[in-house]
Design a protein that fits this description.
With 178 residues, the protein is mostly helical. Helices cover 53% and strands 4% of the residues. 15% of the residues are buried.
Length: 178
Amino acid sequence: MAHVTVSVEYGMHCLLWLIDKGETPLSCRDLADLQGLSPTFLAKIFAKLEKAGIVRATEGVRGGYVLAKKPEDINVLSIVDAIEGRKPLFDCQEIRGRCAVFGDSPPGWAMAGTCSIHAVMLRAEKAMRDSLAAQSLADIATAVYRKAPPEFSNDLQEWIDRRVDGRGRRSGVASTAS
């Protein structure tokens, strides 16, 4: 996990919106519009989340994504690994053996065991992964909703309901509503 990208942040925000929706799917377009990003970009993220078993796709005009597990059973580490892949925090290049003093052949003591710098990075990565694994999507949702005013939940639900209800409707008249 060399660098956690914005894909993880967007993916996690969108997963939060799927909580409490039960079997009401949200499309990538709806989720992208809710976050102000490209539906194509988000579709790539959700394909990875689906492959990892975090979300499940539903078909049809009113199709989209729903959580495949309970939010308390989805830990942050699984989301990060699904989106980013499991990459090491540090890629040791064994620089310790290239000291000019050693010439072309580093002594055994210099190369014995795990590189001391790499060992520190491995411990840091383990601590980070353990911390991410200990936090669930439900934990994050609880923190968000504790912070948000009550009307936020209502406003969000109304926005989602309008989007879901509007899917599949065809109109020859362009909407001028804002």
